[in-house]
């Protein structure tokens, strides 16, 4: 964790800041090891000389224990509306210009800090993601373990539960419990479990819809293991699928394979995305609702952000862990998405998944 803090200091100094305010439970854990239940329960103040966690008495014992164990940070206690005042107290005299990610902090909080005399400027970029994009060997192993847990849940808990009459939301509950039972901290996002006509919604919410013969089933799930997230999608046919459904699934798997093959020679995220788009168009399908993938790490969506817009392209670095998930959604019929996780290395991408990406027929 010490190296992470040093990298953050190097980045914010290079951008003209002399301190940085970190917000978000996953990000604070990344630097300190402390697990919080909600984002608004803590702040992390980083200066050139020290690092201070501001939280309330509910986390006093765990924070003090980790402070003693790591020696990386100090702990200040403040509750509710007193937290902004404590932030000012910690920074004043140590920093003239404090950076923060404007996406996460509320305007109200920033106004309070500025009214107390603290000079705050949005970095307009999440420096924590800049640091965490290249995964350490330890983080890579945790990512593999998180994915292994999710694949085990899919194989041993999801597939056996797919019986006629089960509802989407019931299966979602089975997944959440199974993740914890098999060693995860919990879901990395709410399980996406959709049957039949509901599969046209890429991020649809599980509901009362019950499974019946002939349904296509879209499963998109993931877990968090020691602070690192997995993401996994497969398609199941409950009964023999028709020719059109089989053709669509084969097209998705082919598009995914071609996109991964591109990464053997290039790192451009838009070309990676567009390779899948071109393949799907050649098979008669549009792929335009989301990018082909995203980074997965301390949060489920992070750098590298793989956009469907050419002007937002990035170069995918060694050590990045990210998804490849082409999807097609046809109103009035069905939707499908097949998702694997990749690790970029100097010799090209490694597919981390062990579970096959074939269309599963039950």
What would you note in describing this structure?
This protein has 362 residues and is an alpha+beta fold. It has 2 domains: 2-132, Creatine Amidinohydrolase, Chain A, domain 1, CATH 3.40.350.10; 137-361, Creatine Amidinohydrolase, CATH 3.90.230.10. It has 10 helices and 20 strands. The chain has helices spanning 2-14, 25-32, 60-70, 82-91, 107-115, 127-132, 137-161, 168-181, 243-262, 269-282, and strands at residues 19-22, 42-47, 51-55, 74-77, 98-100, 120-122, 186-187, 192-195, 216-221, 223-225, 228-229, 232-237, 293-295, 302-306, 321-324, 327-330, 334-337, 340-345, 348-351, 360-361.
Task: For this entry, give a set of tags.
single chain; 362 residues; alpha+beta; Creatine Amidinohydrolase, Chain A, domain 1; Creatine Amidinohydrolase; 20 strands; globular
Structure at a glance:
The chain is an alpha+beta fold and 362 residues long.
Please give the count of helices.
10
The CATH topology of the largest domain is Creatine Amidinohydrolase
Number of strands: 20
Sheet bearing the most strands, described? Answer: 6 strands, mixed
- Share in β-strands: 15-25%
- Specify the CATH homologous superfamily of the largest domain: Creatinase/methionine aminopeptidase superfamily
Overall, the morphology is globular
**Cα radius of gyration in angstroms:** 22 Å
The end-to-end distance, rounded to whole angstroms, is 46 Å
CATH architecture of the largest domain: Alpha-Beta Complex
Task: Strand order, main sheet: write it out.
Answer: 4-3-2-1-5-6
Unreliable runs: none
Average of per-residue pLDDT values: 94
């Amino acid at each position: 964790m010490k190296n992470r803090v040093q990298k953050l200091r190097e980045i914010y100094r290079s951008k003209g800041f002399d301190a940085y305010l970190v917000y978000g439970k996953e990000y604070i854990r990344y630097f300190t090891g402390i697990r919080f239940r909600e984002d608004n329960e803590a702040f992390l103040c980083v200066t050139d000389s020290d690092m201070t966690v501001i939280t309330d008495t509910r986390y006093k014992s765990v924070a003090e224990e980790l402070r003693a164990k790591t020696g990386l940070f100090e702990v200040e206690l403040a509750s509710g509306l007193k937290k902004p005042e404590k932030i000012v107290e910690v920074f004043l005299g140590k920093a003239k210009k404090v950076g923060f990610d404007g996406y996460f902090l509320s305007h109200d909080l920033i106004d309070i800090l500025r009214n107390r005399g603290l000079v705050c400027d949005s970095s307009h970029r999440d420096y924590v993601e800049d640091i965490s994009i290249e995964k350490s060997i330890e983080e890579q192993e945790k990512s593999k373990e998180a994915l292994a847990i999710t694949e085990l849940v899919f194989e041993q808990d999801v597939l056996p539960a797919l019986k006629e009459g089960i509802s989407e939301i019931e299966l979602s509950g089975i997944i959440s419990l199974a993740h914890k039972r098999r060693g995860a901290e919990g879901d990395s996002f709410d399980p996406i479990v959709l049957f039949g006509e509901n599969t046209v919604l890429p991020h649809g919410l599980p509901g009362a819809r019950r499974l019946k013969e002939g349904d296509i089933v879209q499963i998109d799930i993931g877990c968090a293991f020691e602070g690192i997230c997995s993401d996994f999608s497969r398609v199941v046919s409950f009964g023999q699928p028709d020719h059109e459904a089989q053709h669509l699934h084969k097209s998705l798997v082919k598009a995914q394979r071609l996109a991964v093959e591109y990464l053997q020679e290039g790192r451009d995220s838009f070309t990676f995305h567009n390779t899948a788009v071109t393949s799907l168009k050649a098979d008669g399908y549009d792929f335009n609702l989301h990018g082909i993938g995203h980074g997965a790490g301390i949060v489920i969506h992070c750098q590298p952000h793989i956009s469907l817009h050419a002007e937002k392209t990035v170069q995918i670095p060694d050590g990045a862990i990210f998804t490849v998930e082409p999807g097609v959604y046809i109103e009035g019929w069905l939707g499908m998405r097949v998702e694997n996780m990749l690790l970029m290395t100097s010799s090209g991408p490694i597919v981390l998944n062990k579970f096959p990406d074939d269309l599963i027929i039950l």
